[in-house]
Amino acid sequence: MPEVHFDEREDAEAFVAELESQGLAHRLHRDEFAGEDDFEDAAWLVEVEATVPDLHARVERAGGWLVEAPDPSRSVPPPLPEAPRRIKRSPGH
Fold this sequence. Notes:
This protein is an alpha+beta fold.
């Protein structure tokens, strides 16, 4: 589920009001970033359904930024090595 981050509560609430007027699902809450020691500096987050039309354009107009979690089914891990890698040269070279 994509998250839209806002620095200001008013911007987040205006974005939520736009979604509500169109009957779109969302959830507004506050979240601290790693290393933040003051809850007043925490960002306002709006979780939205991925099916919201023109989501990127709406977020840009509202002054927020969009964070989408990577889709684990689409990412393929790199292949494992066939043999151990030599870090040091063998003696005599």
